[in-house]
Write a structure and sequence with these properties.
six-stranded mixed sheet, alpha+beta
């Protein structure tokens, strides 16, 4: 696997949220610098998984099928990339959010 150039260096990560555990995040956010455009919380795989999945919203199915395009990171790290997610992190499992302009709108079935 090639080394990724993350936009935020580990030493520059600030403590923004107290949520313990990991999440999945697209390289479109952590490497390319795009804002989070779509996020959802699914049933966690294990007790360390928060269930959060963060995407730019521009990923194709082919892009997501390539597991090298997704990272497992602490939720706090992702919050450092896009602070706008912080108010939504306590959302229940099964919720989905899409960015519209500068705010997130909950998607309903």
């Amino acid at each position: 696997m090639e080394d990724k150039k993350f936009l935020i260096k580990p030493e520059d990560i600030k403590d923004l949220v107290k949520m313990e555990g990991y999440c999945y995040v697209s390289d479109k956010i952590t490497v390319e610098g795009m804002k989070i455009g779509f996020m959802y919380r699914e049933k966690p795989f294990d007790k360390e998984d928060t269930g959060w999945r963060f995407l730019s919203g521009t990923e194709t199915e082919e892009y997501l099928d390539d597991t090298t395009n997704i990272m497992i990171l602490a939720v706090n790290t992702v919050a450092n990339y896009d602070k706008a997610i912080i108010p939504y992190l306590k959302s229940k499992i099964g919720t989905e959010w899409e960015r519209v302009d500068d705010k997130f709108i909950e998607l309903k079935d």
